[in-house]
Design brief:
This protein is 52% helix and 13% strand. It is α/β, with parallel strands linked by helices. Strands 2-3-1-4-5 form a 5-stranded parallel beta sheet. It holds the Pfam family CoaE.
């Protein structure tokens, strides 16, 4: 193995992805946040910007700076699965292109980097899993995720359940996983598992 190893990190909301990312960064592993590209594609001048306005109308434009007001777009797409599908059909392909370019940039400018991690909540749904070599999935029991979400985002039980139920289930994600982290375990167990997996990949890199 001599190419850049690409790991996709995904998991449900409040499932401990940030915890895993923290351990990876401690080991100086380069991490990419797919959300960064999610924000970029909404910017004026990007191909998705015009397509979104064509699809959802002028009312979603912020009149001050002509940016897309995601607080206006959000209620439209979250209340209608068909509208959400229309939106993701626009933004996911452009995000994928930007992520591929980022991978190429790392390979060109950081030749000593052997591993890069792409963190994306929608890794599987968006087809980003096709761009990575390994898939790591974070998991907690549903009731734990609900409690974390209620506390972290100050949501009601009903709203927390809606957000979790709008995503893939643990079982659906697990079908794609090369490795599963149950982040409800002791922190040291999870940290050691991350360190061991990364060290194994690095040790086997040139074999």
């Amino acid at each position: 193995m001599s190419k850049l190893i690409k790991i996709g990190l995904t998991g449900g909301i409040a499932s401990g992805k940030s915890t895993i990312l923290g351990y990876l960064k401690e080991m100086n592993i380069k991490c990419i946040d797919a959300d960064k590209f999610g924000h970029m594609v909404y910017q004026k001048g990007r191909p998705s910007y015009n397509k979104i306005i064509q699809e959802f109308g002028q009312d979603i434009i912020n009149q001050n700076d002509q940016s897309i007001d995601r607080s206006k777009l959000g209620p439209i797409v979250f209340s209608d699965p068909l509208k959400m599908k229309q939106l993701t059909n626009i933004v996911w392909p452009e995000m994928k292109e930007l992520i591929l370019n980022e991978f190429k940039e790392i390979e060109t400018t950081c030749p000593n980097d052997k591993i890069v991690v792409l963190e994306a909540a929608v890794l599987i749904e968006a087809g980003f899993n096709e761009m990575v070599d390994l898939i790591w999935v974070t998991q907690v029991p549903r009731e734990v995720a609900i409690e974390r979400l209620k506390t972290r985002n100050n949501l009601s039980e009903v709203d927390a359940c809606k957000r979790i139920d709008s995503q893939l289930t643990n079982e659906e994600r697990e079908k794609y996983a090369n490795l599963v982290f149950k982040t409800n375990d002791d922190y040291e167990i999870t940290k050691n598992k991350v360190q061991n997996e990364i060290n194994n990949l690095l040790n086997n890199y040139n074999k």
